[in-house]
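@channel sequence for tomorrow's demo:
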Amino acid sequence: MKKCYIASGWFNPEWMVELENLKAALDRNGLRYFSPKDEAICESDAALDRQKSIFDGNVNAIKDCDWMLCNTRNKDMGSIFEAGYMHALGKPIVYFSAGLPPGAQFNLMLAQSGVAVCTSIEDLDAYLAASIDNGGLMNVPYKGNVE
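structure tokens (generated this afternoon):
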């Protein structure tokens, strides 16, 4: 659990608050992380070399990190790409899906690629604390309905 890559959108005020809440949960549990939003933001009209530089930086950060916390709210395409890349590297992914009510469906591919699915900040805090006590990320398979 040395260093976490946070895959999450931040493209509107609601998403930004949720990203900050995820970072705060990691901070409360004493965990280091890389958040692309804090490193380099790509302007929508950025030159191709700037776009490539940011892409390469994020890919290198994924390779450098030991695990990922991926926020699935609003199905941000960049976050889903990052999760697929992390999975291809054989590194663990914890998915965060706030507001997933009991009986709701979670994506099959994500459920099978992750070590856990947390549905609230409180759930994430409890999972992180238990994983730290356990000496590493715990595998808690998703048992709900899938789509």
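heads up for whoever presents: The longest helix spans residues 48-64.
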